[in-house]
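Mods, move this if it's the wrong board.
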Amino acid sequence: MGTGARYFALCPNQHTMRAVKTVAEQDNNSAQENSASVEMIPAGVDVSGYLLRTPVEIGFVLRSLAQKGDLITIHFDHGQHSFLSAILGADTKQQCFWFDISGADAMNRALLRSDHVVFAAAPEGVKIQFVLVDSVSLDEYDERPAFIASFPEDLIKLQRREYFRLDTPIGRPLLCKLPHRNGTVYEFPLHDISVGGVGLWMSGPVDVELMEVFPDCRIDLGTFGMIEVRLEIRSMRQVTKRDGSIQTMVGTRFVELSRQTENLLQRYMAQLERERHQLLRN
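Not the wrong board. C-alpha cells:
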C-alpha cells in the first residue's frame, strides 16, 4: 500500500464532506489566477505573536478554509513556482489535511519533489501562512485526485491592518509610475494594494534589487486622485502565465507614508470593497 493510500485509510470520515470543485475548473484564465494569488509575508516581519501551534487550532483554521472555499496560493522551490489551490478537508486526530492538485501536471510533479512548500491565503483580509515540514503525497478526496500532507508545526494568522491587501480591479487596473535610478520612468500595473504597500507586475528585464527604495513613485487611484509614495522592494518572484510569457511579481512596502495618504488609501479600499460586495449581491 502506497503512502497516499495509507493516509486515505487513516482518514475515511473526511471523505463524506461536500465535494469541492478543483481550482483547475474554477480558474480557467490567467487573469483570474493573477488576481487571486496571495503573496508570502515579507521576510523580517515579526509574527511571533500570531503563531498557532496546537493541532486543534491548526485544524480549525484549515477546516474553516475548506468550508468557505477560500483559495490558497502554494509557493514552492523557494518562491520560484506557485499555483492556486484550495484546502479540501482536515483531520485533527490524524493531523493531516488534503488540498487540490494543480491543473498542470508539471506543477504537480515539481511540488512532489519540493522540500520547501509555503501556503498563503488571505480570507477577508486575514493573512494565513504556514510551511510544510514533511513532504507532500498523492491521495484521493471525494474520489478525486488530491494532495495530502501532515499538519505544519505552526501556522501564522496575521490580522494586522497593514496586511489587509485587496486585489486591484482587472477591468480598470491601477498603474504605478516608478522613477528608476537609470533615468527611466517605468509604469507598472498593480496586482494588489494595502495601507502597507502594493504588489506590482513587471514584464521584461527591470533592474531592481531587494530592499532598494524608490522615491517619488506615483499611483493613480482614479477618482480618488494621485498619491506620491516611496516604495521599498521587499520580494520578487517570476510567474509563468498560461501563454508561456514570464512576469515578475514584485512586493513593495510604503516608506514613511503620510497620514493623509494613508487615509486616502483607506477610503479607496473601502470603496473597492463596497463595489465588490455590490457585484456579489447582484
